[in-house]
User: What shape does this take?
Amino acid sequence: MSEIQNKDVKILAIESSCDETAAAVVKNGRDVLSNIIASQIDIHTLYGGVVPEIASRKHMEKINQVIETALEEAECQLNDIDAIGVTYGPGLVGALLVGVSAAKAISFASGIPLVGVHHIEGHISANYIQNKELEPPFVCIVVSGGHTHLVIVNDYGKYEVIGRTRDDAAGEAFDKVARAMGLGYPGGPKIDRIAKEGNPFAIEFPRAKIDGSEYDFSFSGLKSAVLNYINGCKMKNKEINTADVAASFQQSVVDVIVERAVGATKKLGMNKLAIAGGVASNSAIRKALTERCEKEGIKFYSPSPILCTDNAAMIGAAAYYEYINGVRSGWDLNAVPNLKLESR
Assistant: This one.
């Protein structure tokens, strides 16, 4: 490992777990030489959410293009690349297979080592790109469309999940509430924007606690409470203040995330907390965590908004640390749609 660390290591990274086709070149786990993302949001907006079959087809159309562009922008040839990192789970199985197949084909043809990466590990590793001074151990709250995890990052590539959602992920709740409010897809950014115009304490929505599991989450009851409030207003012909509903719903999510994340960090005797995942770009969550951490004497880390979305740079950062630790994937690497962080 020391021999590898004494030279610059360049990773060609590929990400295709959902509806973003992405490729990047990352040097030494922290320096992004290129980060190309082909988004499908406009297409899936027409359907109110991601359509897996369409996502897979679009990945097939774009995968070679984004890889070539990433290499060109980084001014690299394949013979400059030390390893190929690729997301192999969790995610949509058809979408994952496109990226995994492309990575395996390039690795086989070129002889460049292959490193499979867990998607959530990638999100956590986005913090290393943004915050070059950050090193484990630290606590990370992962908030995305499919996951809400509270994770202890004990070392590079070593994770302990101490809390997770029992039902809906936070991002899933944002999307479902936005759809009920007629805001469209994707719901998170739309609610974040309109909530700025509302009163976050106008409506009292629940903040769920799980008996016997102080770090677990539940957003299904909150989502149902918002839907019941909207339906109740319609039945009574009562005017709905959309901004107040959005702000009050968002405040409930913010309160739960801050309480669990900061509470765990303090109880574990740690002084570093990071956030990761698509919902990590939410302005209210970032503001609340920044203020609470400052009050509690905890150093708070967050990636830039572009690194919160699904992107390949974060996969390249994670792959670097796996690569220098000797991790290599074989030709049997396959898409694992329900891959657990603990079993990667």
